[in-house]
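User: New here, any thoughts?
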Amino acid sequence: MSIESVKAYLEPFGLAGRVIEFDASSATVAEAAADLGCEPARIAKTMAFRGAEGPFLVVLAGDAKVDNPRYKARFHCKAMMVRPEELVQAVGHPMGGVCPFAVADGVPVYLDESLRRFAEVYPAAGTASSAVRLTVAELEGCAQNFAGWVDIGKAWREGEA
């Protein structure tokens, strides 16, 4: 997939015009935040995991880390990421561009509670040098194969390490 496929996917939602392309990499939370001039927490990072029934995506706030006990309680397995060289085939996007839009058929997308504290967030848009500005409600409404909200993030709540 590509930025063009993400734009085409977002077009029926009226959101394709919000895709932002950068001259340099925005593949990491820090790079994307610097490119956008926002706090890193507002970067909606999409993580690809291996599940018993195949790959799935979880979108978390940029400052959230995966809490392994919460992950295991929710998904009934140990957290295992899709290997970088398998991302395109497994979920449809390369490393740094993994996003919840224009994904491979049957790949469920979950949103983490860490996102709900923001009015707007910035997920990637299919490449390592792109993003799209969305409200959390828009993200929920246009995430492909949206499977629900989860609470697997840590280190984003006040007083939590």
Notes: The chain has five helices and ten strands. The CA atoms of residues 30 and 122 lie 12 Å apart.
